[in-house]
Amino acid sequence: MEAFKIDGSRKLKGEIKVQGAKNAVLPILAASVLNQGITKINNCPKILDVESMLNILIETGCKVEWEEDSIIINSKDVDQSSIPEKFVREMRSSIILLGSILGIQKKIKISFPGGCSIGTRPIDLHLKSLRKMNVFIEEKNGFIECKTNKIIGNKIILDYPSVGATENIMLAAVLSEGETSIYNCAKEPEIVELQNFLNAMGAQVKGAGNDIIVIKGVNALHDVEYTIMPDRIVAGTYLIAAAITKGELYLKGTINDHFSPITAKLLESGCHIKEYINSIYVKAPEQLKSIDHIRTLPYPGFPTDMQSQFMSLLTICEGTSIITETVFESRFKNVSELTKMGADIITEDRTAIIKGVKKLNGAQVSAKDLRGGAGLILAGLAAEGITYVKNISHVKRGYENIINDFHSIGAKIEEINLKGD
Ligand SMILES: CC(=O)N[C@H]1[C@@H](OP(=O)(O)OP(=O)(O)OC[C@H]2O[C@@H](n3ccc(=O)[nH]c3=O)[C@H](O)[C@@H]2O)O[C@H](CO)[C@@H](O)[C@@H]1O
Ligand SMILES: C=C(OP(=O)(O)O)C(=O)O
């Protein structure tokens, strides 16, 4: 089994450039079918989820080509509307194809993405919204079949500001008849990025980043070239790598406003932070302080995708910290693993109480999901002795170069084949 071996307890120091954002590029790749032409996407991270999305695009009839860190997609010949189940199982966010494939093919057959380790992740809000846009949907035998003679714009009020539902509605509305307004939409930077991308190929979308998004349907879109923004969650993960090892790090190519809840919590823990335009510097104190309460929320609240990484950090902060996970109901899977490393954590429903310990010890632990895996790597970097993190394919879904990046700032980390598992 592939695993990361980490020889921990080394102060990390240096600089890293942040990769392109996974959660921005995935909906943009899905959207690339809408122009039925050429899309060039720059700063595209080479991660497993991108690979899976490209495999799906190829199945639908796209031609796809890498040119260094750019990806060129030719969607002139897209003619398939049935998405193979194995790809949908590989990557939950393949559900974002609902809106874009419907937009050009007027139909799609796709399997339910299935529950995953962070929660059940239903898609009721996606389906309810598309039904309001004149899409007929049948759910049978684990598959969703959608059909429409034309997508018609409507007023949609989301019960919860779901990122994926907001994206699917935007994608379905771009080539629709009339106007769609999404109330209580998600406000994440990735939604703004999707709006910018769609407008760059001729769409008429406004309001992203605020409470209401309005999309005016257009007849056709054109070729486009677009550069993906930096990944705010990778940036946050790397800042914690510096903090947890009592090191210092200069991160380049960041948009600091995108992760201000993260810097706010690092400041609370006693880190010294200096923000520049498109870069940020963090230096950790010798003893980190506990953080009163982290409560995950939709943007601009504290991101759930940073919860596991902070949990690792809090295990060695002096005092007691509390985390409440409000977004996903099952995102505390790291607790048992961190406990193996000497952490003192108890959970009650959606709240974790973390009592800081003097140090973590290396152990054999297992990643249960993407950010959980990142959290365990961080714990391994801080721990005394050797940590083996198993199931690292989760981590490769979202981190392009985590081994080389941590290596370059002084970590002793390598990928190995762990025998006996
Ligand atoms: C590829 C991508 O961008 N993934 C991100 C996206 O996931 P994703 O788009 O799946 O997250 P959502 O915002 O949709 O989900 C948030 C909450 O709403 C619930 N829900 C969602 C849709 C629905 O129809 N019904 C429903 O009940 C979910 O179960 C969850 O509890 O936003 C999450 C929340 O910031 C992030 O953690 C993920 O990294
Ligand atoms: C939960 C995540 O991603 P996904 O929605 O692709 O599972 C994540 O990026 O942390």
Automatic annotation (TrEMBL):
Gene Ontology biological-process entries: cell division; cell wall organization; peptidoglycan biosynthetic process; regulation of cell shape; UDP-N-acetylgalactosamine biosynthetic process
EC number: 2.5.1.7
GO cellular component, one term: cytoplasm
GO molecular function ontology, one term from the record: UDP-N-acetylglucosamine 1-carboxyvinyltransferase activity
EC top class, as a word: transferase
Listed InterPro entries: Enolpyruvate_Tfrase_dom, Enolpyruvate_Tfrase_sf, MurA_subfamily, RNA3'P_cycl/enolpyr_Trfase_a/b, UDP_GlcNAc_COvinyl_MurA
Record has Acyltransferase as a keyword: no
Reactions the enzyme catalyzes: phosphoenolpyruvate + UDP-N-acetyl-alpha-D-glucosamine = UDP-N-acetyl-3-O-(1-carboxyvinyl)-alpha-D-glucosamine + phosphate
Sites of 2-(S-cysteinyl)pyruvic acid O-phosphothioketal modification: 116
Limits of the Enolpyruvate transferase domain: 7-404
List of catalytic residues: 116
Keyword line: Cell cycle, Cell division, Cell shape, Cell wall biogenesis/degradation, Cytoplasm, Peptidoglycan synthesis, Pyruvate, Transferase
Binding site for UDP-N-acetyl-alpha-D-glucosamine: 92, 121-125, 305, 327
NCBIfam families to which the protein is assigned, alphabetical: murA (TIGR01072), PRK09369.1 (NF006873)
Function: Cell wall formation. Adds enolpyruvyl to UDP-N-acetylglucosamine.
Protein's UniProt name: UDP-N-acetylglucosamine 1-carboxyvinyltransferase
Organism: Natranaerovirga hydrolytica
Gene that produces this protein: murA
